[in-house]
């Protein structure tokens, strides 16, 4: 869908890498036509649809570069489809997601990409791009890498954990070598899967079967060891890597050490690792199983890990905050793991609430330009979308979030748009909310509620 009407976003505080200034944004069709400090002449408003942004920050649309929509994880289908997930994303101010198209064992990359397009095309409120997750590395898969690049995919993913997905070190090295010629980037799930498997066996053997067993079986050392291994593989090959969902101080230290050696590594963390600690696994709730809501991998960590990651965010060491949105209902999905925590589907919701969570959490510590980097520009730069995405500039796509920093509201499952029966942030008092959200020039959200439009498109990078 292409928006045809000329629009002017009037009197907003425009957030750019060079500063925040009062001005107007002019939209023509699906592009930003002009960014005007001080505002356009009154004569230019005569034939335009005008939107008042007084008192608001005007951002390029936020980008969530780590989602799992409408995905089979080996245990169950996620609760959110591309339709519901991108609608929820847009309601929170996110105008583009980058989802993990995933090759299963025995599947070609072409088939995986076709399947993800089939799930997403024509259903989305927000835009969508794909990383390609590789689970079956062989000569044919290697030959398909160039085709993926032609299809607009410049980022890939491999796993060090999960038996049905993980590659060994030599295979991971070969993937890095295959994507290096076009400066592709490899996102890696960094947990030592062999250790996790053994620790799960031991924890269960001790009679610990509830959600509290999940963090015990995936300690910080499992993450740090895997991150260290990835850093050396990147150093060996010279290829770019992205550490996804970093959750621990130990893991962060491995990234710091690698950067000092010149390793080309970008770093992602997620709101859950900045806000929630591992005492959540002890929650009982009405049915005695509320701790299952927080079963995700890597698991929630210690307060000391939260403090270290928050400090890294404030110091500019983190390139992007995305969500790893992978939603499962507590009732009918996660509760199938009663009596064996290894059978609880891993993942939690978050795509809708990320901007509000981060801007509230770091209020008084970070400013609008920092949020621009962490929630939009950083993702666009790392994953080959900038300045088409992640920028308020003439010629950029008209993906825009008008953010009202004065709004006050409470996050709850009762008012969310994510298609899941809980939120891990129930009762969180949020400061700020998306007032207007434009996707490709079309108004997709007003005051946190969807307009019903589905202007999202595939973003080839």
UniProtKB/TrEMBL annotation:
<comment type="similarity">
    <text>Belongs to the metallo-dependent hydrolases superfamily. Hydantoinase/dihydropyrimidinase family.</text>
</comment>
<dbReference type="InterPro" id="IPR032466">
    <property type="entry name" value="Metal_Hydrolase"/>
</dbReference>
<dbReference type="InterPro" id="IPR050378">
    <property type="entry name" value="Metallo-dep_Hydrolases_sf"/>
</dbReference>
<keyword id="KW-0479">Metal-binding</keyword>
<dbReference type="GO" id="GO:0004157">
    <property type="term" value="F:dihydropyrimidinase activity"/>
</dbReference>
<protein>
    <submittedName>
        <fullName>Dihydropyrimidinase</fullName>
        <ecNumber>3.5.2.2</ecNumber>
    </submittedName>
</protein>
<dbReference type="Pfam" id="PF01979">
    <property type="entry name" value="Amidohydro_1"/>
</dbReference>
<dbReference type="InterPro" id="IPR011778">
    <property type="entry name" value="Hydantoinase/dihydroPyrase"/>
</dbReference>
<dbReference type="InterPro" id="IPR011059">
    <property type="entry name" value="Metal-dep_hydrolase_composite"/>
</dbReference>
<keyword id="KW-0378">Hydrolase</keyword>
<dbReference type="InterPro" id="IPR006680">
    <property type="entry name" value="Amidohydro-rel"/>
</dbReference>
<feature type="domain" description="Amidohydrolase-related">
    <location>
        <begin position="57"/>
        <end position="442"/>
    </location>
</feature>
């Amino acid at each position: 869908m292409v928006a045809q009407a000329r629009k002017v976003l009037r009197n907003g505080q425009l957030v750019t890498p060079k500063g925040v200034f009062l001005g107007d944004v002019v939209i023509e069709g699906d592009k930003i036509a002009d960014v005007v400090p001080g505002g356009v002449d009154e004569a230019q408003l005569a034939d335009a649809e005008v939107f008042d942004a007084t008192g608001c920050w005007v951002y390029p649309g936020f980008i969530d570069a780590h989602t799992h929509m409408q995905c089979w994880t080996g245990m169950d289908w996620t609760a959110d489809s591309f339709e519901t997930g991108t609608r929820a994303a847009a309601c929170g101010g996110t105008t583009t997601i980058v989802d993990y198209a995933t090759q299963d064992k025995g599947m070609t990359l072409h088939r995986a990409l076709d399947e993800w397009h089939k799930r997403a095309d024509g259903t989305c409120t927000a835009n969508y791009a794909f990383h390609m997750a590789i689970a079956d590395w062989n000569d044919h898969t290697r030959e398909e890498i160039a085709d993926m690049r032609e299809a607009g995919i410049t980022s890939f993913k491999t796993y060090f954990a999960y038996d049905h997905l993980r590659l060994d070190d030599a295979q991971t090295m070969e993937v890095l070598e295959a994507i290096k010629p076009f400066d592709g980037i490899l996102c890696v799930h960094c947990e030592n899967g062999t250790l996790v498997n053994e620790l799960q066996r031991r924890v269960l053997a001790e009679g610990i079967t509830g959600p509290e067993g999940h963090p015990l079986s995936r300690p910080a050392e499992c993450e740090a060891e895997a991150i260290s291994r990835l850093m050396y593989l990147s150093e060996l090959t010279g290829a770019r890597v992205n550490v996804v969902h970093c959750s621990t101080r130990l893991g962060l230290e491995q990234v710091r050490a690698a950067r000092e050696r010149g390793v080309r590594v970008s770093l992602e963390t997620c709101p859950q690792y900045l806000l929630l600690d591992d005492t959540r696994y002890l929650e009982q709730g009405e049915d005695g199983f509320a701790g299952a809501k927080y079963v995700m991998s890597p698991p929630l960590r210690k307060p000391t890990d939260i403090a270290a990651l928050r400090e890294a965010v404030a110091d500019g060491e983190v390139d992007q905050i995305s969500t790893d949105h992978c939603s499962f209902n507590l009732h009918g999905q996660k509760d199938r793991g009663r009596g064996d925590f290894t059978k609880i589907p891993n993942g939690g919701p978050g795509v809708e609430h990320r901007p509000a969570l981060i801007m509230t959490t770091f209020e008084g510590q970070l400013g609008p330009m920092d949020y621009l980097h962490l929630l939009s520009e950083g993702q666009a730069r790392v994953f080959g979308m900038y300045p088409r995405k992640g920028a308020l500039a003439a010629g950029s796509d008209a993906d825009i979030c008008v953010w009202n920093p004065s709004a006050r509201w409470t996050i709850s499952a009762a008012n969310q748009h994510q298609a899941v029966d809980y939120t891990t942030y129930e009762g969180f008092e949020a400061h700020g909310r998306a007032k207007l959200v434009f996707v490709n020039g079309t108004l997709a959200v007003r005051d946190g509620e969807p307009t019903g439009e589905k202007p999202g498109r595939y973003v080839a990078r």
